[in-house]
């Protein structure tokens, strides 16, 4: 299950952020997960719930935001959301499109001591 290895990496990154910030209680970790990232949100949440108590408090929460797949047409440069995995430009009908969003897992913020928000990015 690769969700567990992603959570392990995420928790290590958050530990580094907490250390740089001088410590504190982590209350929320906000993550964006793209529809095309290969991450199953329920398994990601379950892995987080299982693993977070060994690193942070069990009341630390995961705020998961699902990001839709967005592409840009290589022919007409139209930007659009991919629906039903149809990788075809709705304007000119070409299949020559490039995904520009929705295939990533990104750490957005970490809330420490329930009020401080630290911006960060993860892969």
Describe the structure.
One of its GO terms (molecular function) is nickel cation binding. With 123 residues, the protein is of the alpha+beta class. The chain has a domain at 2-68 and 102-119: hypothetical protein PF0899 fold (2-Layer Sandwich). 24% of the residues lie in helices and 33% in strands. The protein is built from two helices and seven strands. It has a four-stranded mixed sheet with strand order 2-1-6-7, with helices on one face. A three-stranded antiparallel sheet has the order 4-3-5, with no helix packed on it. Helix 1 packs across helix 2. The two termini are 17 Å apart. The model has no long low-confidence stretch (mean pLDDT 90).
Termini distance? 17 Å
Average pLDDT number: 90
Strand content: 25-35%
Q: Strand sequence of the main sheet, in spatial order?
A: 2-1-6-7
Q: What is the CATH-assigned architecture of the domain at 2-68 and 102-119?
A: 2-Layer Sandwich
Q: Give a short account of the largest sheet.
A: 4 strands, mixed
Count of β-strands: 7
Count of separate DSSP helical elements: 2
Helical fraction equals 10-25%
CATH class of the domain at 2-68 and 102-119: Alpha Beta
Query: Which fold name is given in CATH as the topology of the domain at 2-68 and 102-119?
Result: hypothetical protein PF0899 fold
Uncertain ranges: none
- Summarize the helix and strand pattern as letters: HEHEEEEEE
InterPro entries: HypA/HybF
Protein name: Hydrogenase maturation factor HypA
GO molecular function, one term: zinc ion binding
Organism: Gimesia aquarii
């Amino acid at each position: 299950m690769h969700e567990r290895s992603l959570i392990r990496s995420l928790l290590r990154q958050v530990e580094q952020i907490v250390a740089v910030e001088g410590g504190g209680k982590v209350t929320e970790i906000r993550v964006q997960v793209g529809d095309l990232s290969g991450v199953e949100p329920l398994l990601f949440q379950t892995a987080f719930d299982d693993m977070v108590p060994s690193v942070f408090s069990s009341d630390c929460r995961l705020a998961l935001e699902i990001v839709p797949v967005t592409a840009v047409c290589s022919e007409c440069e139209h930007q659009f959301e991919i629906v039903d995995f149809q990788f075809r430009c709705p304007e000119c009908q070409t299949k020559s499109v490039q995904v520009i969003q929705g295939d990533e897992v990104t750490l957005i913020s970490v809330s420490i001591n329930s009020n401080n928000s630290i911006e960060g990015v993860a892969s």
